[in-house]
Description:
The chain crosses the membrane at residues 21-40, 60-80, 87-105, 111-130, 151-171, 177-197, 222-244, 256-276, 288-306, 312-332, 344-365, 377-394. This is MFS transporter. Residues 21-401 form the Major facilitator superfamily (MFS) profile domain. Helices cover 81% and strands 0% of the residues. It has 414 residues and is mainly alpha-helical. The model is unreliable at 205-210 and 407-414 (pLDDT under 50).
Amino acid sequence: MNDSDGSSHRTIDAASGRRRSMVWLLVGIVLVAANLRAALTGVGSLLPRIEVSTGLSSTWTGLLSTLPLLTFAATSPLVGRTAHRYGAPRALVVSLAVLAAGLVMRSLPGVFFLFAGTVVIAAAIAYGNVLMPSVIKRTVPENRIGQATGLYVTAMSLLAALSSGVSVPLAEHLPGGWRTALGIWAVLAVLALAIWLPRYRRTGPMAAPPVARARIPWRSPLAWQVSVFMGLQSLGFYTMIAWLPSILHDHRVGEAAAGWQLFLFQMVGMVSSSALPILARRVKDQRIQAAAGSVIVALGYVLLAVAPQLAVVSSVLIGLGGGACLVLALSFQGQRAADPEQAAALASMAQSVGYLVAAAGPLLLGTLRDLTGSWTLPLLLLVALTLTQAAVGARAGRDLHLNSPSPAPVPIGD
């Protein structure tokens, strides 16, 4: 009787321990996700203030917005190898510590620290970007990948939107101005570090996965479709993050109001990215969703170009379609893979190629703005790229794995 009771208590304690561990794991994932954009999105709201303070031109501030994407592209292929060798917990712990240090560096006086800190921050964020799809692929059932992705996209988008909205008020009220407003996000990185550090200590510094690392699928057409879709939707997002406040400012909208407009764009995107996995949880073929979301974004760009006085409607359309495309782009990296190792390899490729594509956006639009003196041509270019995104998404959204053959066409007579 006593042995039975003891066994029962041990079983209950073990189950309770697993639940607690899972809760803390989810908390850790959400906190990592919260750090993946907040450190960068506040820059867009502060660009007019940064330009005045530093004397940088639109081209140079466009480069400042492009640097994170170039760094993502350069760093992403290294993440899988590092995580395989040292273990994902250690990779996350080190990247979060580097992120906190980079945020402090970026807030120091001097243009050098502004640019160097941005590179350090982006390199740290790249690790979280690549590791997330693999973690979700390993820990959740296949039919829940979209919902789990929606959870961390919601956390990522919420903090990104808050960063855009509060950056100007923080710069106005905190000592140190815009530099302090950018550096304050180090607190969020430290919180995430506090959650992941115990996991690093339990697994040990040299813990590594017991399975072979999958090769990056450079020769797969489906992997390229996923990567280009990732890149084009990221190009649109980061271009809006960088330049939407400046576009509105050029049409006599105040800095704080423009920052809250950017907040609206991201909040609508967050709602869209949260709702899509719920509304389409049983839909395995996402071609229509990817194409429709892209077309909605293109309509928002058209409206912003021809009727900037309706910028609120434009922000809603761009956020609505962009939020859907974001969660699809991230879901594809897990759903198009056959196993967690292949998901990590696909994520490395998608985020390396994708962010290399996206890097052209802020810099190109800033340069076109300097050359033409108007935002019309840059916005029309975004329309063309987003329609291309719709076509690519219609291919990336097919219900296939990387190692699966394409579905054979059905004869007309059948």
